[in-house]
Design a protein that fits this description.
With about 375 residues, this protein is of the alpha/beta class. The chain starts with a helix and ends in a 7-residue tail after the last strand. Helix 1 packs across helix 2, helix 1 packs antiparallel against helix 8 and helix 4 runs parallel beside helix 6. The strands form 3 sheets. A 5-stranded parallel sheet has the order 2-3-6-1-7. A 3-stranded mixed sheet has the order 5-4-11. The protein has 15 helices and 11 strands. The chain has 2 domains: about 250 residues, P-loop containing nucleotide triphosphate hydrolases (Rossmann fold); about 100 residues, Aspartate Aminotransferase, domain 1.
Length: about 375
């Protein structure tokens, strides 16, 4: 392929994508580059996640995954999967994961969430793996593969969100038109752009392995890792793709001025730790934890003009994968928080060191995955 032909591959894939989903220009460019990346992801040291979200239903999240399924390499579109099944599927087939209804998955059982987070936290880098205890030893499962998630709101744990490019969809207006997706017809039409993308990936695999694309200064270290494979693809495509990719990276992923919010969330995590230590227990009722936070005198008695409540506490902790659950307190079953659910999040707070799982074995989860 020459430069003109390379650019045409990207243009055709983008045209196909935007026929059926309403996207901004930077979103369309980013998703096109990512779809191309799935055909050559083994050349990269890291694979960026696509975090597709909206503030409500009817914005086209599932439809976007369905269209991507026709373009990406070795697609696996699913909406219901346990953490163990996800880990084993990725290890066995190394698919392009298109995970729908991720908000429901992260509101499930704590044990399944732990495995799910382990897969997603490690699966963005080459040689990433998760482990589980088996027969007195450990089994390693490879977790590295391209992944896209779709869900309502900000439901991804912070560690996963930091490895993702945010694609926030909105409901189409009456003036925006997209084609109806008729699968039998469209799947046949998708063969041409997908074949060209696969050919592109195979031809430039060795080039992309050596690529060191220029990274916009506005991106931080984590964002640079996320965008490097996409910028490398854009450079090979050539033409206007080089500049457009860098514009998209800055618009979608450059750090925003939310340091104060981040600081407040870290403070909430640390204060929850203080409350657990003061009670010396492994579980606390939600009301008890809130009362303990308020009694610390660190500002939780007045959050945006009102005291911290159960919903505010849940919203503040959700991005770290921490949430309440039903627990036994004496003879009562009440909503509460377990200390173990905070352990991984506490390790993320600057200056705080925690221990999770099996000592000396990072990423290991407890035996007892159950039936998959």
């Amino acid at each position: 392929m020459n430069t003109v032909e390379n650019e045409r591959v990207g243009d055709l894939a983008r045209q196909f994508l935007t026929r059926f989903v309403s996207l901004s220009d930077v979103q369309a460019d980013t998703l096109t580059l990512w779809a191309l990346h799935t055909h050559c992801w083994t050349a990269a040291q890291a694979t960026p996640y696509m975090s597709i979200s909206s503030t409500g239903p009817g914005s086209g999240k599932t439809r976007l995954l369905e269209v991507l399924e026709m373009l990406v390499s070795n697609p696996w579109l699913t909406g219901r999967v346990t953490g163990p099944a996800l880990a084993r599927k990725i290890d066995a087939e190394r698919p392009t994961l298109l995970l729908d209804e991720v908000d429901a998955l992260f509101s499930g059982a704590a044990s399944s969430q732990q495995v799910l987070r382990g897969v997603l936290n490690t699966g963005y880098k080459l040689n990433g793996k998760t482990s589980y205890a088996s027969g007195g030893g450990y089994v390693d499962l490879q977790t590295f593969c391209p992944k896209a998630f779709a869900g309502i709101g900000k439901t991804l744990p912070r560690t996963v969100a930091d490895r993702s490019v945010p694609i926030v969809l909105r409901k189409r207006t009456a003036f925006e038109h997209v084609e109806r997706l008729r699968f039998r017809e469209v799947q046949e039409e998708a063969r041409v752009p997908r074949m060209m993308m696969a050919r592109f990936g195979a031809q430039f695999l060795s080039v992309l392995e050596l690529a060191r694309p220029e990274i916009p200064q506005e991106l931080g270290d984590r964002q640079a890792d996320v965008w490097e494979p996409l910028l490398a693809v854009a450079d090979v495509l050539g033409g206007s793709w080089r500049e457009r990719a860098r514009e998209a990276s800055v618009e979608l992923s450059a750090p925003s001025n939310d340091a104060d919010t981040d600081g407040e969330v870290f403070r909430l995590l640390l204060d929850c730790r203080s409350v657990f230590e003061s009670f010396g227990t492994e579980r606390l009722q939600t009301s008890t934890l809130i009362d303990g936070l308020v009694s610390l005198g660190t500002g939780w008695e007045n959050v945006a003009g009102r005291p911290l409540d159960a919903r505010g506490l849940s919203d503040g902790l959700r991005s770290f994968g921490v949430g309440p659950g039903k627990m036994r307190f004496g003879r009562q079953t009440l909503q509460g928080y377990s200390r173990v659910s905070f352990e991984s999040a506490w390790r993320l707070v600057p200056g705080v060191v925690g221990v999770v799982g099996v000592p000396g074995v990072p990423g290991v989860v407890d035996e007892g995955w159950g039936v998959v």
